[in-house]
Amino acid sequence: MPVQSWLALASVPGASWAVLDGEAEPVGSAAGYAKAGAANATTETLFEAASLSKPVLAAAIHDLVRDGSVNLDEPVAKHIDFTMDVATRATTPRHLLSHSSGLPNWRTEAGSDLVSSFKPGSDFRYSGEGYTLLARLAEIVTGQTAAEVVRSRILTPAGMTRSGYGWLAGQSPPVAWAHDAGGELMADKGPAQFRRSRDAGPRRSVETWTQDDRVSAAKAFGKPALPIFMAPNMAAGLWTTASDYGRFARFARRYPAMNTPTVTIAGSLVWGLGWGLEQSGPDRFAWHWGANDGVANLFVLDLLSNNGLVVLTNGAGGQRVYERAARVRFGREFDAFTWLQP
Questions:
Q1: Does residue 334 have a pLDDT over 80?
Q2: Which pLDDT score is estimated for 280?
Q3: 289 pLDDT exceeds 80?
Q4: What is the pLDDT of residue 321?
Q5: pLDDT at 281
Q6: pTM of the full structure
Q7: What is the DSSP string of 230-295?
């Protein structure tokens, strides 16, 4: 795929991508810059997964379901006192996995309560808050941090040796920086933003931070104690490579419940229990996108052939790159791309 030329056309400095072909090991590639004009992107460069973090957490929840630690249809409020609203307290892990809880994407105002905008299970509303609530549930039922749960149940067995939720002070892994729509460096985002959050908390891996640690770090950073300001953000805070994420997509096949159509979005698009689903005739695809500031990512998996594609980019214009790559890889259009248009 001529990704280098697509990057130039979209003003995106760099990309890493991996092609999945059935059961074979994902084949990774990279092009462009990890930091505009300063460092080349390679297959070892860590990119922000952004919301591609959510399916990874979802798979860990399904693993907890498998061993009886989580019941998909038991109200989360039985374990976590997360809202004062009576109707919202009916929210279950099934609702959270499928974005049918009615919870907001993110709160930013201190003191704001979590309240569903509709009866849980009756409609679709994309919610990062819902996934951070799933992470809290994982912590309650296991006694581990959510990042530790994900590492032991997903990252390690899937062979995702380069992936994690950040790095220790003093470490300098090769990382991709965020860039705006014109390809200019966003120096206060990406790695810099992670370091600020990390340095406000305990001097140990953020993967070991408890809820109290996360709250204290957010306050020390001058932010409200809300999930969007906490590290690690289990809904959007994974750092990974395209090949590692391809290994996840292959590993996640052991959780077929993720492919359960649960809530209708529009047309051929529905949401399953962890990722989006698109069906057209006999073809059926699982997919998810990721978008942090200056970051745009995509994964698509053909559920019949197990062929797939992961594209990670470090530019706000990366959607134009990953859409082109998916069209070339699968030889078709995707309704999901029309739905994702701003």
A1: yes
A2: 86
A3: yes
A4: 98
A5: 86
A6: 0.97
A7: SSS-TTT--EE-HHHHHHHHHHGGG-GGGG---EEEETTEEE-SSSEEEEETTEEEEEEEE--TT-
Tokens representing residue 185 in the block:
């460096």
Residue 323, Cβ neighbours under 10 Å: how many? 22
Interior/surface letters 170-207, b for 16+ CB within 10 angstroms, e for the rest: eeeeebbbbbeeebebbeebbbebbeebbebbeeebbb
Lookup: tokens for 199: 């340095």
Residues 6+ apart with CB under 8 A from 156: none
C-alpha distances (whole Å) from 295 to each of 73, 102, 181 are: 34, 26, 10
Written as one letter, the residue type at 334 is: F
Tell me the percentage of the chain whose pLDDT exceeds 90.
96
Which parts of the chain are beta strand (E)? 14-20, 27-35, 39-40, 47-48, 239-240, 263-266, 269-271, 276-280, 283-290, 296-302, 308-313
* Backbone φ and ψ of 28, nearest 5°: -100, 150
Q: What is the mean pLDDT of residues 198-220?
A: 97
Helix/strand/coil for 54? helix
How far apart (Å, rounded) are the C-alpha atoms in residues 184 and 316?
Answer: 10
Tokens describing residue 278: 């698109």
Neighbours of 46 (CB within 10 A): 23
- Determine what percent of the chain is predicted with pLDDT higher than 70: 100
**Phi and psi at residue 290, in whole multiples of 5°?**
-140, 135
The rounded radius of gyration (Å) of the Cα atoms in the chain is 19
Total Cβ atoms within 10 A of residue 331: 7
Q: What average pLDDT does the segment 77-85 reach?
A: 96
Question: What is the rounded CA–CA span in Å between residue 268 and residue 281?
Answer: 9
